DNA sequence: TCTAAAGTCGACTAAATCAGTCAACTTTTA
DNA sequence: TAAAAGTTGACTGATTTAGTCGACTTTAGA
């Protein structure tokens, strides 16, 4: 159930860019603040650019900046684009469903669907703005519960 | 955010063993019902045995069977033992915390913690018995919600 | 118009993990 | 004592991951 370093580092970069909205930042500057090597960051930023989350300016004084407002950048979508489907198994994926030989009647699929849906619930309701403003609340202390209506 | 085939196949095996409680099942029989090759199942069952979820009997008439009652087999624990921590990132892991250079003040960690906690909430509240009796309810149709108290 | 600063692109690699195979071995029962 | 079954360890092939490297293009400003 892991997030790879690519996804993690992409989110780090978006956060740093969000903290400097309006200003372009060079790969080197982003690298300093995210602690990701610039060679690797370059790859990730290029991918974020292709996905239209960021844009860039070449030449002297160039660099990267956010393409959309932080409130319009959905974390679920970022994770999905960089890491693949949110579902732990293809059979429970909404965006990239893969049939399984054990369907129907599989007693595992409902579990994977539930896991997928709760992950999606959290990630798709979080925007970059939420992260920037520390609006993600912890479940610790049972502030949150999942319950059946 | 994937479950590997090892975790999936281990759960399949446990389900099949749960459906035949009291009877030993050979690797070959389990293989037929889970659609996992017996060479690979052998590896997985051995691991499940070391973890004390199943037990085995050698020789003619031998095979595998559950070691505990299905109601005592916690799916979160099975997944954790076979796949590693439930948390998507080490910094948010409860059972295997790994420090990160960006702590404290990291704006991502609360998100990973929330994801970990919701995954744990689902998986740790599910037992093998729940799976066998199809007691895992789907989030579809918004039967469930996550909310802040 | 030249130069240095920046992003862009493609090829390559080293390590890790995963999924799976195989052969030899031990235990047990009939 | 033979056959059925689990046990063990070594091995392999494919894939993914996390980078590295070098050559190239674009741009601003002196």
UniProtKB/TrEMBL annotation, chains A, B:
Pfam families in the record: Rrf2
CC terms in the record's Gene Ontology section: cytosol
InterPro entries noted in UniProt: Tscrpt_reg_Rrf2 (IPR000944), WH-like_DNA-bd_sf (IPR036388), WH_DNA-bd_sf (IPR036390)
Protein name, UniProt field: Rrf2 family protein
Alphabetically ordered keywords of this record: DNA-binding
Molecular-function annotations in GO: DNA binding; DNA-binding transcription factor activity
